[in-house]
Amino acid sequence: MTHTFPHNFLWGAATASYQIEGAWDADGKGESIWDRFSHTPGKIEDNSTGDVACDHYRRWREDVALMRRLGLKAYRFSTSWPRVLPCGRGRLEPRGLDFYDHLVDALCAANIEPFLTLYHWDLPQALQDEGGWTNRDVCHAFADYAALMVKRLGDRVRYWTTFNEPAVAAFDGNLMGEHAPGIQDPRVAYQVAHNLMVAHGLAVQAVRAARPDVDAGIVLNLWTSDPASDSPADLAAAELAWQRGEALFLDAVFKGYYPSAVYDLLGGAMPEIRSGDMALITQELDYVGVNFYSRNLVGAEGNVNPVPGAEYTEMGWEVCAPALRRLLNRINRDYRLPPIYITENGAAFKDEVSADGKIHDPRRLDYLKNHFIQTRLAMQDGVDVRGYFVWSLLDNFEWGHGYSKRFGIVRVNYETQERVVKDSGEWYARVIAANAVEEGQP
Ligand code: IFM
Q1: Model pTM?
Q2: What's the helix, strand, coil split of the chain in %, to 5?
Q3: Of 3, 77, 173, 194, which has the fewest beta carbons less than 10 angstroms from its beta carbon?
């Protein structure tokens, strides 16, 4: 069976600045919290850093040529705040801004729609030193940075995402301490979560004030919480997990309040919410990005893990494509949403380079194929999905896991920086060319 997509469906691939750029201190770039964190011994699984990563800062021309060869219609990337504003505010580094300017020009010349994210976790360290996202001044600094970027690039970049995955920035970084800045404090984490929302609202306003003609949105990472059984206890546990996790950000952005389950959880430890904050947070958006990887199977006794018989990726995440269709239908039912883009979806598997020099990665190919199909089915259910970005264009620095997890549809040899398109990448190019996915064999 063939699943054909609408003619203007935006097929793309995604990356993020710290994960691919390298050049961590080149051309006047300031230190980010991820530079500081990865340079701290013991923080990254394989003791690596993003100092060089995929050397994209120097190889961007080659990378855009690769995107063109794959036929990508869009490229989602993030800009590094400290590359442009080394201290987060004040002195501008023109070489940093020029880098993004040239990248955007090259994308436009290649007919690839730039889809820009302003914050994919690399906060300037200078701002962390002022309290990071717990400090409301940082929210205003972010809005100023957003305005600066949109003034320079808004004539060519239509899509402006404020934040990538605020949940991960807030909780992995400030509750679990597994991401930069490595804090483990629930009070800090929830204040960061709220302040990220405030910064989102301020940035949307700043982007619109600078250029009313661009599209503004946010990207959320969403997992379904599927009940382990139909028992009332499991159903309630699954719903509670959804309310405390996903609904925390969805309700704030699209309804203008936090779920009561979050108030129940935190009680007197709720973050400081100033008058007017919730109205600020719930700005009309032009799109919402959904990053989807897996689901949680939730029971009253805890999560079911591993799920018997299920397949898992190298991240330890269950492969469950039908959950994506359920997720899209649920958010479509519960919220008045703008158009949706799947802004990330993909899988880390152990890749091997075969004797023929190729990377045969059937599991990644199948993963993508099944998620494309589930998305198309959700669209037929009535969900307005406009595009899809595979995570990731390139193998890259997978945060606390370093280079040990490979998500790319293009392999990166970190010794030589050679790029080799994997089978999944070649297949994706065919999907884009056909604007359709064939069920069954590739
Ligand atoms: O690599 C990350 C990305 O930066 C944000 N979303 C999830 C990906 C895989 O973990």
Answers
A1: 0.98
A2: 45, 20, 40
A3: 3
